[in-house]
């Protein structure tokens, strides 16, 4: 155990959690797609496959990517050593046991008990360093993780009571909280990556008031889903989502540099962030009665936004933090393209063809499989 704790894999948080998150993304969506098309046995986890899918995408996949990023970024923000060795192994084991618990014949109370520890433990590990270094500007990250824990409890309560509406509201609120967190993190790192990647001075502008407004807007959006306000069209909610979409669009305009199109690690981030615009504006259109399926906005955020930003971010961070050149292989560039196509098919093709779901799932799984093929050896080896 001691030797494993000293292995490169457990030297910093991004290594195990990016590998686990990418692997789980490919497996979970493959299982979901096969079940949708009737290719799996009738046996289902507690609460059914829909409950499992609703829970595992935000609290399994997204939580792993968020955990890997924050456990790597917080040491940079604070100057303190990051979680590593046996402590990191323990946190990884907590995440893994939560995934496996769904496949076991457990009572609902034990299933819930297995799911809940990860996010509070993550908040504890990063929070103690942020507090020690007095990094107050990063405290909103802890707030979002705390609220995600509440959404997870809400979703699991719906599983335990067989309340599909409670499951749905908890999972949707969590998705918009993840979107809010990505708007905060994206607003910080995407301009920096553009500056470094294109050797531009000064860095593209990110307005503090826009960051604060988008964070508050994301929190309000999550609250509106948790309290069922988004179950019916509302003029004031259409205004909230219009404001959020406009601010995301303003950011993209301020960050734009035509040089990004020659750098895959930049255009992949830029286009993935653009899905946050699509999601917010699609919610505006739903609240004004111009589109009939709210799920199109949800999956714009989930597939294109969260999925796309996750893949682009883990590809960039993994190269940078292992000391390798920021030049991705052609296969991972193909992965970026496939994930963008997964978002397009899920949002634009599904309303017209049942094949849209299958193609979207196939491209999503292929994209994360390509990441694993290219990055597993990188993440298992020592820094160059």
From TrEMBL:
InterPro entries, sorted: NnrS
Pfam assignment, any one: NnrS
Superkingdom, natural source: Bacteria
Alphabetical UniProt keywords: Membrane, Transmembrane, Transmembrane helix
Transmembrane segments: 12-37, 57-74, 108-127, 139-161, 173-194, 206-229, 235-253, 265-286, 298-319, 331-349, 361-380
Protein name in UniProt: NnrS family protein
Organism of provenance: Pseudomonas violetae
Lineage: Bacteria, Pseudomonadati, Pseudomonadota, Gammaproteobacteria, Pseudomonadales
């Amino acid at each position: 155990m001691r030797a494993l704790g000293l292995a490169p894999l457990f030297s910093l948080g991004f290594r195990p959690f990016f590998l686990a998150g990418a692997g789980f993304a490919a497996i979970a969506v493959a299982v979901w797609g096969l079940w949708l098309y009737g290719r799996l046995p009738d046996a289902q986890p507690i609460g059914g496959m829909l409950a499992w899918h609703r829970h595992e995408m935000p609290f399994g996949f997204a939580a792993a990517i968020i955990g890997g990023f924050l456990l790597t970024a917080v040491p940079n923000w604070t100057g303190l050593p990051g979680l590593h060795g046996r402590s990191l192994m323990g946190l990884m084991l907590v995440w893994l046991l939560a995934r496996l618990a769904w496949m076991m014949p457990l009572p609902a109370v034990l299933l819930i008990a297995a799911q809940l520890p990860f996010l509070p433990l993550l908040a504890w590990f990063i929070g103690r360093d942020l507090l020690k270094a007095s990094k107050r500007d990063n405290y909103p990250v802890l707030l979002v993780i705390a609220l995600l824990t509440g959404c997870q409890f809400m979703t699991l309560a719906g599983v335990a009571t067989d309340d599909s509406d409670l499951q749905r509201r908890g999972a949707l609120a969590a998705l918009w909280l993840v979107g809010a967190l990505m708007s905060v993190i994206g607003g910080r790192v995407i301009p920096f990556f553009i500056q470094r990647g294109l050797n531009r001075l000064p860095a593209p502008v990110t307005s503090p008031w826009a960051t604060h407004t988008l964070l508050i807007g994301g929190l309000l959006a999550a609250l509106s889903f948790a309290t069922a306000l988004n179950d019916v069209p509302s003029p004031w909610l259409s205004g909230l989502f219009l404001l959020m979409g406009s601010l995301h669009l303003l950011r993209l305009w301020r960050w734009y540099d035509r040089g990004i199109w020659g750098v895959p690690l930049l255009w992949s981030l830029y286009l993935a962030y653009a899905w946050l615009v699509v999601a917010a504006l699609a919610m505006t259109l739903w609240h004004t009665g111009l589109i009939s399926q709210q799920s199109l906005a949800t999956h714009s955020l989930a597939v294109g936004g969260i999925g796309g930003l996750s893949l682009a971010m883990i590809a960039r961070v993994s190269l940078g933090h292992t000391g390798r050149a920021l030049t991705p292989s052609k296969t991972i560039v193909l992965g970026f393209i496939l994930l963008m196509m997964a978002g397009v098919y899920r949002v634009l093709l599904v309303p017209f063809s049942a094949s849209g779901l299958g193609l979207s799932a196939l491209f999503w799984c292929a994209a994360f499989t390509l990441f694993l093929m290219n990055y597993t050896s990188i993440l298992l080896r020592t820094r160059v």
